[in-house]
Amino acid sequence: MFSRIKEDIQSVFDRDPAARNTFEVLTAYPGIQAMLFHRVSHWLWQRGLLWIARMLSNIARWFTGIEIHPGATIGRRFFIDHGMGVVIGETAIIHDDCTLYHGVTLGGTSWDKGKRHPTLMNNVVVGAGAKVLGPIEIGEGARIGSNAVVVKAVPAGATVVGVPGRLVKSSTENGDADHREKMAAKMGFDAYGATSDAPDPVAHAINCMLDHMHVIDRKMKMMCEKMQEMGIEPGDMDIPELGSCEIMSTAEELMKLQGTEEK
Q1: pLDDT tens, 103-136?
Q2: Secondary structure of residue 9 in the 3-state scheme
Q3: Which DSSP category does 84 fall into?
Q4: Where are the alpha helices (DSSP H) in 1-142?
Q5: Across residues 36-65, what is the average pLDDT?
Q6: pLDDT value of residue 195
Q7: What's the Cα-to-Cα distance from 156 to each of 22, 89, 256, rounded to whole Å?
Q8: Does domain 2-167 have CATH number 2.160.10.10?
Q9: 125-126 and 143-144 as β-strands: parallel, antiparallel, unpaired?
Q10: Strand pairing partners for 85?
Q11: Which backbone phi and psi does 125 adopt, to 5 degrees?
């Protein structure tokens, strides 16, 4: 138990750049405080001291605003960031290296006994306000977007957003990744790196612009080739680099600012 507590503390430093020292983490981070209470209450629960375990978890809820049922099974290096409003049900199972943000609910959809809460595999991240409901499995490395409501199993490595939760296709799945990367490289910035798999309206608009410019480039190239075949030389034109344009610098600053706000 004590080795897991030590790992929980270290996970704060690994995932929160604001953490400065161990004393601060122990005294000012409700997520780690809730986990300290839960490690003890879960140990009592496993040994049949059910009432004492429930009272200890209730005290933890008063102090931290985080409600973790003592029957919940939580793996190593678990991190709750901010934490207020987090609810984790009795039969929830959380594997190693998972991260939950404030307002997350791992709840049930039935009053029946038995397994009725979610299972989170390794390295799952659940965004602020998300609700994961029912005895479903969230695959390893999956991401649940903020305020999403998930009631179906999520495959490993997937991203889920919206109400009800839906899988978001990555750029590699729609075949546009290569030409977008090349076009973005011409402009001198990563047009969608900050939100590569989330339905962000700004990133979507820039991706559409990149697709349009890619088609225009191809058409212009074909036109020049046909003209050369007819003996017409288009001539050299002094085309400025896209990266030097003021509008592209502004777009780059916008994407950097957007990425900073999301972090």
Answers
A1: 999 998 888 888 999 999 999 999 999 999 999 9
A2: helix
A3: T
A4: 2-15, 22-28, 30-46, 50-64
A5: 93
A6: 39
A7: 33, 22, 28
A8: yes
A9: parallel
A10: none
A11: -120, 130
Q: Quick check: bond before 234 cis, omega within 30? A: no
Beta carbons within 10 angstroms of residue 190's beta carbon: 16
Half-sphere exposure of 117 (CA within 13 A, CB side): 18
Task: Report the chain's C-alpha Rg in angstroms.
Answer: 25
Rounded CA-CA distance 60/5 in Å is 16
**Greater confidence, 25 or 173?**
25
Rounding to the nearest 10 degrees, give the CA dihedral for residues 86, 89, 90, 92.
-100
Q: Where are the domains of the chain?
A: 2-167, 173-262
DSSP 8-state class, residue 88: E
* pLDDT > 90 in the chain, percent: 33
Q: Which helix (DSSP H) or strand (DSSP E) does residue 100 occupy?
A: strand 99-100
Q: What is the pLDDT of residues 75-106, one digit of tens each?
A: 988 989 888 999 999 999 999 999 999 999 99
Whole-angstrom distance, CA of residue 211 vs CA of residue 22: 49
Report the alpha-carbon distance of residue 142 to residue 128 in Å, rounded.
Answer: 15
